[in-house]
Write a structure and sequence with these properties.
Helix content is 82%, strand content 0%. It has 165 residues and is mainly alpha-helical. It folds into 2 domains: 1-33; 37-163, no CATH class.
């Protein structure tokens, strides 16, 4: 093969190799950008379920005595927000786009959970028909977030400490 053909082939090979590297880098960037979205599908769905259920009119729920309803309602709120905090904590800890969120995932999730619970109660007062704002629900939501925080730390705490050391 003459030297000019060899150098042309070598140049074409270099160009193709560079294009491959660029495409591989673009794929890695896209994969990283959508990692948070992929990790957030289940927690986002849970968040939507909470929003829909708390927006239903009060007449759609069974009629119980005041104390039974208060005990069940408080436990239900705490459980729902425990799961909220745990799911968002896992999703935020697994993503790698934002290091701050990975390191402080469950704390951030708990704070957002408390704010979400408060905003739901405010929306129940002003927007949702047949619903009312109750301070006890806000306390139950915050308690659930706090319990979710400690459950997350018990399950993932050691793993995350080792990962970020």
């Amino acid at each position: 093969m003459p030297p000019t053909q060899y150098s042309i082939l070598n140049t074409q090979y270099s160009i193709l190799n560079t294009q491959y590297s660029i495409l591989n880098t673009q794929y890695s960037i896209l994969n990283t950008q959508y990692a948070l979205l992929r990790q957030s599908i289940i927690p986002f769905s849970w968040t939507l379920v909470i929003g829909v259920l708390t927006g239903l009119p009060g007449k759609n729920f069974p009629d119980m005595s005041f104390w039974k309803l208060l005990q069940f309602d408080s436990a239900a709120h705490a459980f729902v927000f425990l799961v909220f905090t745990f799911l968002w904590g896992v999703a935020l800890a697994k993503q790698r786009n934002f290091g701050f969120l990975s390191r402080n995932a469950v704390g951030f999730a708990a704070i957002v959970g408390v704010l979400y619970g408060i905003s739901i109660e405010i929306m129940q007062y002003y927007i949702f028909i047949g619903r009312s704002c109750e301070f006890s629900d806000m306390v139950s939501d915050a308690t659930g977030c706090l319990i979710g925080y400690f459950v997350f730390k018990a399950v993932y705490g050691k793993v995350l400490r080792l990962q970020f050391e």
